[in-house]
Specification:
- The protein is mainly α.
- The chain has one domain.
- The protein is 79% helix and 0% strand.
- The protein is built from three helices and no strands.
- The protein is elongated, with a radius of gyration of 26 Å.
């Protein structure tokens, strides 16, 4: 005996869709949060390697037989690469912050419809001072600038 398939109500299908969409949004928010730490790890690893390479060139220039100009150019090249890495990681973190804001806005819209209006308050962009991403970007930019200042004021002048 064949029975026709039972049709689910539109509200049941809509509720399932809202739940799946909500899970997806929460997953994306979590992914954006995890990516920040990945970018920081990339920066820290490459900053250590490139900064260490610059110090190695400085310390070994005479034993390697490098001219002063070659040693200076090598150090500046390594710091330039470090700067590019720092700017790239900062840009990725900033874009992640914008994505996070967008997903939170979407989450608020979804919960306004599914639960009740005002269930979740949208994030206030003026609270950026409390976001850890702000301080990670500040750390990346400050440490990159500090390495340039120290290199230009201490390292390069002592190469003769």
């Amino acid at each position: 005996m064949n029975h026709p398939p039972l049709e689910r109500s539109t509200s049941a299908r809509s509720g399932e869709y809202e739940l799946e969409r909500y899970r997806y949004i929460l997953q994306q928010l979590n992914s954006v949060n995890e990516n920040v730490h990945r970018y920081l790890t990339v920066y820290q690893t490459l900053a250590t390697a490139l900064g260490g390479g610059a110090l190695l060139v400085f310390a070994s220039r005479t034993s390697w037989g490098l001219t002063a100009a070659t040693a200076k150019a090598s150090i500046i090249g390594l710091l330039s690469l470090l700067t590019l890495v720092g700017l790239f990681c900062s840009m990725l973190i900033f874009v992640g912050m914008l994505s996070w804001l967008d997903y939170r806005r979407e989450e608020c819209e979804l919960t306004d419809e599914a639960v009740y209006p005002g269930f979740r308050k949208p994030p206030n962009r003026r609270n950026f001072i409390r976001w850890h991403e702000t301080y990670i970007i500040a750390f990346i930019l400050t440490s990159t600038i500090l390495l340039w200042v120290l290199t230009l004021s201490l390292l390069l002048p002592s190469i003769t």
